[in-house]
Amino acid sequence: MFVLLRKFSFYALLTALVLSLPTQALAQASECNVKRKVKNEALDEATWKRLNDVYENVSDEEYDLAYDKLVKMNTRARSNYEKAVMAQALAQVEWARANYDAALTNFELAVELDALPDLQHFSLMYQIAQLYYLKDRYDEALDKLALWMCKVAPEKIDAPVYVLQASLYAQKEDWEQVVPSIDKAISMSEEPKESWYQMKLAAHFELEQFPKAAQTLETIIEKWPDKKTYWIQLSQIYYKLKMNDEALSVLALSYRRDMLDKETDIMYLSNLYSNSNVPYKAAKVLQKGIEDGIVEANKKNWTIVADNWFSAEEMEFALAAYEKAGEASADGEIDLRRAFILVDMERWSEAAAAVNSALDKGGFNDKKTGDAYVLQGMSEFNLGNYEKASTAWGRASKYPKAKKSAQQWLNHMREERARKS
Q1: Are 211 and 202 in contact (CB under 8 A)?
Q2: Among 111, 273, 303, 354, which is 20 to 30 Å from 50 by CA?
Q3: CATH of 346-421 among 2.60.40, 1.10.287, 3.40.50, 1.25.40
């Protein structure tokens, strides 16, 4: 009794599930389960000759003439087999004439008549799916393709079929379905095409499956190592995944392969080096990019170079880069920064020239203006130009935030001069 009850419940559940399926799905499922039984038929000799004549017209691109002949032949067709042959021929002529709606109608008629041999019949089913795709009717294309896949022998379903299926899902932006379809295509092929991997990569991006996107890009780079885009994409994904070392390694390798030929590429690599606390290479890469004409030689870029040289404690390189930045700048801010470094290095003559250039250009706030006059006084004082130093500190005293420092220097100079006299 218990066994019977369990069996009854299972069949009740199964019935409920079947009844809940959409009518179209039920119809397709039933079609899948029906095996074709087709009589072996052939055209009579006269019809075959007329049809062969039509195909010669098609070969000569005499499509209208071929169509007119087929219409007359179609009126004389008696069996479903003859009608299906005529429908297939008409579809091919309409396709050649770019009448795709008419071609689709005739292809579907040829299949509905269900009289052609398996090879032709199933080939037409596949063409119909492709036609719906070309007409942007993706749902119908998927339905037709699924029906074809369930009807043909499994060995007939090769990698391009799954690529078509994946492409249809991609057009519908159904990325969850794209992945298994394109994965199946790739797994079935000894030499998967680059475009297949591109579709897989796009799906992972859309689904924000970044680790899988990284794995896909790794495979792509192994197969197509000379495509710069993939190296940059992989580096960017690693960076997004906070795998900074990997991001830098990938891009640095592409740089050594001479693949980075745009300003954005060089700037990105320089930033990665800087963020990884490798300022020496950050500066070197960016400076070479500027000198090679890849990166624009402007104030901003030369300043980044200089700042990185400074962080790397390469002062001579930093000073040279700051000088370049200053030359490209309309204001005196960069020259003032260079003057600070030169004062710190006690290179007074160069410091005086830098601060004079900064003051001539101006363009900075009162605090920096006061600081500039203090530096000017210090440079002139250490060069023994006491009058110039006194004038500079006198000007600095007019700025509240520089006044105290300027007075201290003035007092120091008086004491020094008194000591020497």
Answers
A1: no
A2: 111
A3: 1.25.40
